[in-house]
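hey so i finally got around to running the thing on that chain from the lab meeting. sorry it took forever, my laptop kept dying and i had to restart like 3 times. anyway pasting the input first so we r on the same page abt which one it is
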Amino acid sequence: MKAENKNISLLVSSRTISKIGDVMFDFANNTFLAGINPNSLFLVGIYQSLESLIGIFLNLFGGVVADSFNRKRIVIATDFLSGLACILLSFITKEKWLIYAIVVTNIILAIISSFSGPAYKAVTKEVVREEQISRLNSLLETSSTIVKVTVPMIAVFLYKILKVHGVLLLDGISFTLAALLVHFITTVKEDPAVNNKVTVRSVMNDMLLGFKYIFDHKQIAIIILLSALVNFMLAAYNLLLPYSNQMFSGMPEGMYGMFLTAEAIGGLLGAVLSGFLNKKMSSMWLMCFLGGSGLALALAPILYFYSHNQIIVSLSPALFNLLLTIFNIQFFSIVQREVDNEFLGRVFGIVFTVAVLFMPIGTWIFSIILQAKNSLNFLFVGLMIAALSVLFALLLMLISQDFTTQAIRLTDFLPAVFLLCMTFQKCEDLCFSSG
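ok and heres what got predicted. didnt touch it at all, straight out
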């Protein structure tokens, strides 16, 4: 138990420091590139989109590597390489070279991240017992939320004093320190079989085995499909959020900032509360939290029509993100507990790939069908998320039955069908309304 607590402290500390490095790296580079000249928007767009594109292609390979080599060493090596890249970048003084070097370094870090992400998630099962996985994930999410809220403000101060080169040097030191902390973690469970001979054929074969494992375990497949569709719907929410003042006309200025603050508070509370929940939450409870998050978001226009008070309306995104954070933490905990250790890296590689893939697709589709000024937008997105939770809860119930002795009754689908029909009717109203 003592060794396990030490592992949790070291892993949370390492991940927090690494996350600080990520946030400061992006802030410093975005600020530097945006400040070059007014026509640098295209360059910033390239910088921001490369990470997602690389993730789509390389997360699957990262999952295979995480299952083929020692995961702890992968985490140490990727953090160390990230630190080395940032330190080298900080010594480039010529502005023209630094511009290109920042873009190239971001590509390198995105490639590294594609291998470190699955390894980080998979190594959890080797450093703590299954009963402690939910607690560890809650602590990781809590620290990540705190970093996302506080570090940008600190980064503004540091950037003014140290400029881009000083911030990049701090990034490099933070990544190196994160790697050092992981070095002192001791495993409580054996690593999966290590494959020292990796060829193109073996990588492709291992990847196919990962997909086959998911298809053979229907509950895992359904939960992963659900996470992809949730990310698809979250693309609509993220797209609409900056238009908060247009959706809720007559409200005081700064609704976007108010909603972001409410989100952060809700996410932090959700991460803390998740640590007190059942250590082995069932998939059905997972659906309840997801459905609750959707209904909480759907409350936004109702609260708006009831009261034009900023704080009251902001309760909707706060509660939405609170329940969604619990869903996300418990989702990863279920996958980490239920998936066999030797396939864990590949499963998370697939999870990250579908998550990255579905969000840009959702952004493109919802930018066409939604109208920024429609006050019912959050009602539509919330109901769709709630409908997904109902539909997938029914699917999970059905696969748990013995189909050789029990027939699927059509009436089992009626509640989900009814809710989906209502949601699609609302979608039609939104699409053809004048706003």
